[in-house]
């Protein structure tokens, strides 16, 4: 169907999951007010979680999860070869996500804690870009479906996409949410990339940084603020490490 | 007829997570039938060690995208039991309301989007958008109402942000809108009943033990004793005497057993143990759809899920009315960490979920254990499959039909596989 005389592209999309909770895939099936329109605008050719029809002819691969076992390498490399555009979907795919918290431990001990004397194969959790070339990263735990919809619209009409340059903080101001620090909570909002519409501070939870750093984060000012508000360096570093988006920031 | 079947279903479709079906029949005799969970482990119990109590719920939420709300509730309950905290009555009601939102969302997703395509012999819900638009639109509306409720009460449907140790952020401002959404969902659920009256499920049975929580005077959701159809009754904190986890070499998920070689949890288990506690309309729906306790047909789990949808929607309407009367009451209480341990058991969509934490005096976790519903179901699915293949061979089913029956069997349990491995 033409729109203003232009035929929109029908993108053939494949959705793939690696190590993770599949919550980002679930988000694709959420936002029900526009779900049927979303599914009509694209062509889902491979989405194992919802369909037995596993076509190999896709333009865009949406990839959820991180890479934590050797068989996942072969699978992601094959997907990379098939896809014109590979999109990392969610914090696990973009940064390793909560899975990467295990990297801070000795993996032999980690295995013993869960499987006793019968360890299972596991590797340090890696983001998708650490294994194959990634064309776009949509962070979030989970991803914001509205943002995914907007990105898909941009891909359909060939409009370049850019994420907001401002931090989550700005979106709290837009929503008239009282600052989480005022409630005595630690919040990574000042240094985290906006675009999520700041649901966490509105729900009484300071930002946990699932979208990774904003453009030009002012870490020094942030650390000073956190200290002034009475948070220990340990609390701050644990929060920064939660989703893996602030690796190396101290 | 000398029948031969070789099935290797790699990464079964329309289920959450990664599992394989392996079936070998030679000369009409079953050699093996396996349900192998091959999901990559994430080692949540190890990661939880040393974490502050405020991080336990946000972290364990990420065990599962579909039942993240249930994980948070079990986690909060375990922590609050360890600290000796009782949350205010309004918070208790809000949590149950959030729980119902998740149950409705998860069951609707499973029944209409993941299981239903098999009933119509199509590969996914996508062709049904064209052929059965009314049904799909109704299903989308039901799921939408559930997510709306979750978002208003818990701040977000996937990985909620308003449930905290000590209570819940606030009573939603617009309870009337929530009530309207639930009333519409009830109408929508009633409208799809004729569709389910026409669906014929496989007439397969295997006697097993059904395990669920037992509530005082109501259908079970949050906390309570653990009971089974074999007469077991244990306290919440005795959960390890119920789950008896062990390892199987083909699986990254652990297996569980109680009185027999395996047991089942989930909507059918809850129904089998507590059907008399359902809302009258839900009980009538069960009768209309031919579901009676104790049903040993695993495919009936889909019907039990639909029955529970009706139940939770009716109970949600009542909870919303009660919350309207409680406006102004506190929803949070004070939290002080105490050295000790606590167990939280919650009936999440797929069955009982246990979280168990041991805390030090600073409120940091020394030891954690999470036992997931699908972990408890995996051995039961596996044992069902052997019987199902033999049952199918006796009835002269061909390889393709057996593959479909086995796939539908796994789907009937609505497995949350990445959750079961965590």
Jot down its keywords.
heterodimer, A: 250 residues, alpha/beta, Rossmann fold, 2 domains, 5-stranded parallel beta sheet, 10 helices, 5 strands, globular, B: 422 residues, alpha+beta, Cytochrome-c3 Hydrogenase, chain B, 4-stranded mixed beta sheet, 3-stranded antiparallel beta sheet, 47% helix
Task: Explain how this protein is built.
- The complex is a heterodimer of chains A (250) and B (422).
- Chain A has 250 residues and is an alpha/beta fold.
- In chain A, 33% of the residues lie in helices and 10% in strands.
- Chain A is built from ten helices and five strands; from the N terminus they run βααββαβααβααααα.
- Chain A has a five-stranded parallel beta sheet, sandwiched between helices.
- In chain A, β3, α3 (70-82) and β4 form a beta-alpha-beta unit.
- The longest helix of chain A has 13 residues, at 70-82.
- Chain B is an alpha+beta fold and 422 residues long.
- Chain B has two domains: 5-37, no CATH class; 44-421, Cytochrome-c3 Hydrogenase, chain B, CATH 1.10.645.10.
- Chain B has 14 helices and twelve strands.
- In chain B, strands 8-7-6-9 form a four-stranded mixed beta sheet.
- The mean pLDDT of chain B is 97.
- The chains are: A alpha/beta (250), B alpha+beta (422).
- At the A-B interface, α1, α2, α5 and α8 of A face α1, α2, α4 and α6 of B.
């Amino acid at each position: 169907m033409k729109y203003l005389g232009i035929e929109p592209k029908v993108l053939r999309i494949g959705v793939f999951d690696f190590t993770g909770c599949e919550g980002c895939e679930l988000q694709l099936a959420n936002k029900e007010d526009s779900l049927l329109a979303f599914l009509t605008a694209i062509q889902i050719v491979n989405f194992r979680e919802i369909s037995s029809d596993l076509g190999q002819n896709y333009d865009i691969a949406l990839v959820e999860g991180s890479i934590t076992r050797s068989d996942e390498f072969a699978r992601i490399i094959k997907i990379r070869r098939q896809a014109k555009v590979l999109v990392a979907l969610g914090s696990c795919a973009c940064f390793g996500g909560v899975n990467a918290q295990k990297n801070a431990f000795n993996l032999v001990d980690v295995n013993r804690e869960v499987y006793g004397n019968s360890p299972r194969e596991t590797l340090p959790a890696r983001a998708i870009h650490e294994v194959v070339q990634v064309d776009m990263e949509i962070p979030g735990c989970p991803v914001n479906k509205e943002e995914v919809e907007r990105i898909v619209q941009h891909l359909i009409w060939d409009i370049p996409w850019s994420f907001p340059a401002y931090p989550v903080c700005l979106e709290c101001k837009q929503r008239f949410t009282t600052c989480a620090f005022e409630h005595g909570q630690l919040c990574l909002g000042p240094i985290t990339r906006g675009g999520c519409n700041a649901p966490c501070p509105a729900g009484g939870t300071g930002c946990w940084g699932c979208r990774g750093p904003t453009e030009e984060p002012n870490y020094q000012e942030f650390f000073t603020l956190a200290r002034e508000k009475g948070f220990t360096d340990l609390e701050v570093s644990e929060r920064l490490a939660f989703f893996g988006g602030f690796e190396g920031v101290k | 007829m000398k029948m031969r079947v070789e099935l290797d279903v790699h990464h079964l479709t329309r289920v959450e997570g990664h599992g394989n079906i392996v079936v070998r029949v030679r000369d009409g005799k079953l050699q093996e039938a396996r349900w192998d969970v091959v999901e990559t482990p994430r080692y949540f119990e190890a990661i939880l060690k040393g974490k502050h109590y405020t991080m336990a719920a946000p972290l364990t939420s990420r065990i599962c995208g579909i039942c993240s709300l249930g994980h948070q509730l079990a986690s909060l309950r375990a922590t609050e039991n360890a600290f000796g905290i009782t949350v205010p009555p309004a918070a208790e009601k809000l949590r149950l309301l959030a729980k119902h939102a998740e149950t409705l969302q998860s069951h609707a997703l499973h029944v209409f989007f993941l299981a239903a395509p098999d009933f119509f012999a199509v590969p996914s819900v996508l062709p049904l958008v064209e052929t059965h638009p009314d049904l799909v639109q109704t299903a989308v509306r039901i799921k939408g109402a559930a997510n709306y409720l979750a978002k208003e009460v818990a701040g977000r449907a996937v990985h909620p942000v308003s449930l905290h140790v000590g209570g819940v952020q606030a009573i939603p401002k617009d309870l009337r809108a929530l009530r309207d959404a639930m009333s519409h969902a009830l109408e929508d659920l009633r409208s799809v009943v004729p569709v389910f009256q026409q669906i014929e499920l496989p007439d397969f049975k295997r006697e097993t033990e059904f395990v669920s929580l037992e509530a005082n005077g109501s259908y079970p959701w949050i906390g309570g004793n653990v009971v089974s159809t074999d007469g077991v009754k244990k306290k919440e904190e005795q959960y390890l005497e119920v789950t008896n986890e062990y390892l199987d070499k083909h699986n990254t998920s652990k297996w569980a057993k109680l009185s027999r070689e395996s047991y089942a949890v989930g909507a059918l288990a809850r129904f089998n143990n507590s059907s008399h506690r359902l809302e009258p309309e839900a009980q009538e729906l069960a009768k209309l759809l031919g579901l009676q306790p104790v049903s040993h047909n695993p495919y009936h789990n889909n019907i039990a899920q639909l029955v529970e949808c009706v139940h939770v929607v009716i109970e949600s309407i009542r909870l919303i009315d009660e919350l309207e009367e409680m406006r102004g009451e506190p929803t949070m209480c004070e939290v002080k960490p105490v050295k000790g341990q606590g167990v939280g058991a919650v009936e999440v969509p797929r069955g009982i979920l246990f979280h168990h934490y041991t805390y030090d005096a600073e409120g940091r976790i020394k030891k954690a254990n999470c036992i997931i519903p699908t972990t408890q179901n995996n051995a039961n699915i596996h044992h069902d499959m052997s019987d199902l293949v033999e049952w199918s061979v006796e009835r002269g089913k061909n390889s393709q039909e057996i593959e479909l029956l086995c796939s539908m069997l796994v789907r009937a349990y609505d497995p949350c596989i990445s959750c079961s491995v965590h």
